[in-house]
Specification:
Layout (H helix, E strand, L loop, with lengths): L2 H4 L3 H13 L9 H8 L15 H8 L4 H26 L6 H10 L4 H4 L10 E2 L13 E11 L4 E10 L4 E6 L6 E3 L2 H4 L13 H11 L5 E4 L2 H8 L1 E2 L3 E3 L17 H8 L13 H18 L19 E8 L16 E2 L6 E3 L2 E7 L3 H10 L2 E5 L5 E8 L5 E8 L8 H6 L22 E3 L2 E3 L9
Parallel strand pairs: 1-7, 2-6, 6-8
Antiparallel strand pairs: 2-3, 2-5, 3-4, 9-12, 9-15, 10-12, 11-12, 13-14, 14-15, 16-17
Helix pairs in contact: 2-4, 2-5, 11-12
Length: 461
């Protein structure tokens, strides 16, 4: 057992065990619950919350993994200890934290951060970059990055271009990258690249990782829009990040939603990164991300900003959201409703709320997703944000009929006042509950001899 793992605090070991649970990792005695069932005759797996187990039990489970995994766990220990030191430093010396590092903290506090920045960096080919010393917490040096990816025949995405600029918009890295495997779709309409552009390119992903490790030394901050997707393509685990999709508040989007880079630039910077139908420019996108952070630092933008209602990240446009699904209905059965070869989006964690859950259905392209929605048989309505949805019925093999909603990701027009006044629809599954705000003090209602406060009201369908 490594010294770092053995000497870690219990709270750190709890997080590592939870990491193994989230990723379905198994040691010589299986996963966490398998281990408990075999080794705890009194409680077995019934007491599976790692927080309720002793440090010795947590360590005993982690040492059932291979030496390579234990080395990786040691890296996680170091990462978690550095993050803990950062939080402690903020508490003790809040005035010493640079405005840039406060945006790093703001990114980490976003409700989607934990899900999107939990990388499978234990897998082959991944690099884990450490955060560094506590003294780096005052570092204000920033770099912005953007990547372009192609679809390969094995179903994975591969990096084909990467651009990095500094805060003066000077180019620090601009490379075409050889994917080193067969490409199924160059996505030229998006990437702006074709097969001939990569002819003779020798730069590899490993070369890019080495370059990034060098230019990100001494605690520099890495910026990007929906940066987790770029880091996935780079197979590069780096924690000191500012995600421009996370640092602004949106007046007309759910708390878990984010605006596209193009729409955010229109609202914050007053210009579009690209015209409609124009392919991405990797360098311009990196510059735009840096300009958004500079604008945030200079002007604050603390009040919620309005985003065009038809603004949705392109990666979301190939999806349909299925929600208010009864928990007894396996998500794979949803695919029976569609022709072609859609799949359940594995990057989207199914969100369970009581007796229902939600998940995303992924299609090959935007047109396929649009066609799939149009062909659905069900009553069409809108949610409170103006997105079209249908209440559909699915007959199961056992004769039971399940009812749930399938919704577009794109925004349409707002519901008008008459539509809103007819009925308060049920809560949606993709937004966090919010307190009712009406500018007046909440009134108390009598229930017998007592008064009770009104409960929180969720955003309506």
């Amino acid at each position: 057992m490594g010294k770092r793992l053995a000497g870690a605090e219990k709270e750190v070991l709890v997080e590592i065990v939870r990491f193994t649970q989230k990723n379905g990792l198994k040691g010589a005695e299986g996963g966490w619950k398998d281990f408990l069932a075999r080794n705890d005759k009194r409680f077995g797996a019934s007491l599976s919350d790692p927080k309720k187990r002793s440090k010795d039990v947590l360590l005993a489970f982690l040492v059932t993994f291979s030496k390579d995994f234990q080395n990786y766990f040691s890296k996680l220990v170091r990462r978690l200890q550095e993050q803990s030191a950062f939080q402690q430093y903020i508490k003790e010396f809040p005035d010493n934290i640079s405005p840039e590092m406060k945006l790093v903290q703001l990114t980490a506090e976003h409700p989607e951060y934990r899900k999107n920045y939990s990388f499978p960096s234990y897998k082959e080919g991944w690099k884990v970059m450490r955060e560094g010393k506590v003294t780096n917490f005052v570092n204000s040096n920033m770099l912005a990055i953007d990547c372009e990816m192609v679809l390969c025949h094995d179903g994975t995405e591969a990096l084909v271009r990467v651009c990095v600029v500094d805060s003066r918009l000077e180019v620090k890295l601009d490379e075409l990258v050889n994917p080193l495997k067969a490409v199924a779709d160059y996505r030229t309409s998006i990437t702006g690249l074709s097969k001939k552009d990569l002819k003779g390119v020798t730069c590899s992903l490993v070369d890019v990782q080495k370059s990034l490790k060098k230019i990100l030394s001494k605690g520099k901050i890495l910026i990007g829009h929906s940066l987790s997707k770029d880091l996935q393509a780079l197979k590069f685990d780096y924690a000191r990040v500012i995600d421009t999709a996370y640092i602004f508040k949106y007046a007309n989007l759910p708390i878990t939603a984010s605006a596209s880079l193009n729409s955010l630039c229109k609202s914050v910077l007053g210009y579009a990164v690209r015209e409609e139908g124009e392919p991405h420019n990797c360098l311009k996108d990196a510059e735009a991300a840096m300009n958004l952070v500079i604008a945030k630092l200079k002007h604050g933008f603390n009040d919620p900003i309005e985003i065009a209602r038809n603004s949705v990240p392109e990666s979301d446009m190939v999806k349909l959201l299925a929600h208010k699904i009864p928990v007894y209905l396996p998500c794979q059965e949803l695919l029976k409703l569609f022709s072609g070869n859609p799949s359940i989006d594995e990057k989207n964690d199914s969100r369970i709320r009581g007796d229902y859950y939600s998940t995303c259905i992924l299609f090959g392209d935007i047109d396929e997703a649009e066609k799939a929605f149009d062909e659905l048989d069900g009553q069409e309505t809108k949610d409170s944000s103006g997105r079209l949805q249908k209440n559909v019925l699915l007959k199961r093999d056992n004769g039971d009929v399940a009812s749930f909603y399938i919704r577009k990701m794109a925004y349409g027009s707002q519901l008008n006042e008459s539509e809103l006044s007819k009925k308060r629809p049920p809560p949606i599954e993709d937004a966090e509950p919010t307190k009712e705000v009406d500018g007046e003090k909440q009134k108390k209602r009598k229930t017998g001899k007592k008064h009770e406060k009104k409960t929180k009201i969720s955003v309506a369908e």
